[in-house]
Amino acid sequence: MGPLSPRDAAMSPAAERVMARADALAAISETPDGLTRVYLSTQHLQANQLIGEWMRQAGMTVWQDSVGNICGRYEGQQEGAQAVLLGSHLDTVRNAGRYDGMLGVLAAIEVVDSLHQQGVHLAQAIEIVGFCDEEGTRFGITLLGSRGITGTWPQGWLEKADASGISVAQAMTLVGLDPARVLHAARRQEDFSAYLELHIEQGPCLEQETLALGVVQAINGARRLNCRFTGEAGHAGTVPMHHRRDALAAAAEWMVIIENATRQQGGNLVATVGELRCLPGAVNVIPGEVQLSLDIRGPQDAPLDRLLNELLEHAQAIASRRNLDFSAEEFYRIAATPCDIHLQNVLGEAVTSVQGRSLSLPSGAGHDAIAIAERWPVGMLFVRCKGGVSHHPAESVMAEDVALAIEAFSRAVIQLADRVTPAPAYIARS
Fold first, then answer.
1. Residue 170: helix, strand or coil by DSSP?
2. Sign of torsion, CA 369 372 375 376?
3. Which of 54, 198, 205, 239 is the most interior residue, by most CB within 10 Å?
4. DSSP E strand boundaries for 92-235
């Protein structure tokens, strides 16, 4: 089979069904004027019910697990066979778009539905999971659903409370889940041979390359720091320029270095100063202190840490030359999550087969694959989104792109699931 023609892509019933179902899911929201659906809400359970019904129509056995994930299984040629796991999340940020997370679940259902309509069962089973909470909108903790599957809920999660003071444990009880059974959601390592996730890119790279699809090489690691330059405030009119200890001038110099040094490093590294606070903050006072944030991300940890060390050395040098003090405190760190090379190759071949060529790119946003990669090999397929806009009502995809995505995803899933794999020898990342 060659690449899908634009005409065939435009006429794909599967893609049109996904678009319509995304609209139906978007109507399940706690707010009438924007999509918001959070963990253990009435809307969460309604979305699970609807997804479960679509799974059943596709020939799957369906259940809701002990943390609130909606799960479906399409059996292999032999009952109880190992499975390829597909999925993404069904929760949203506040005032969200309708494709972040949901597109991956809906496209996975189409893959299974096509097999079901043909009466085809593969050597491995296929399971789909609609994860219950990836965004962390309600309780401020992320990946609850995927960490349920891996059995890695931290001890204190049940006590975490939402803005109304309701704890996770209380919220679970209110919807009929038993907090004491959280670990029952955990799956055995031998249950799955691999995990694939289809997701909108949430960035502009595919659009700039005029490509519908791309293959994720890694989910970026990240480091976040609160930084501070401390100098001396003074009268803006009376302190000569060569006597000044201007904290803002130092911060500005460093910000330019951050931009230039990160560009020179390449390797898909990015760095952002997103917050800046100048004290005392008066028009006629030399800034004596500047507080600023630093967020750096990249698909590999070693280059990321080298960049961080280089940037901090630059800051110290600037402070020393200007007779200032500099300090930095790291408050967030997450390791890069590399996607499995074999799965990248399988997805890359499938993408090339439907659109002529493939593009490898990192994910700057986090995904459920971060947690799943601690137990199983993971691969991700990205779908172009208009303007790279996400986490916003303007989030948009084209039905033609969705058709290509379903076709490529199907080819990859069938290639993986149509062979028996030995007991997993996968070594999870630390």
1. helix
2. negative
3. 198
4. 125-131, 192-200, 213-219, 221-230, 234-235
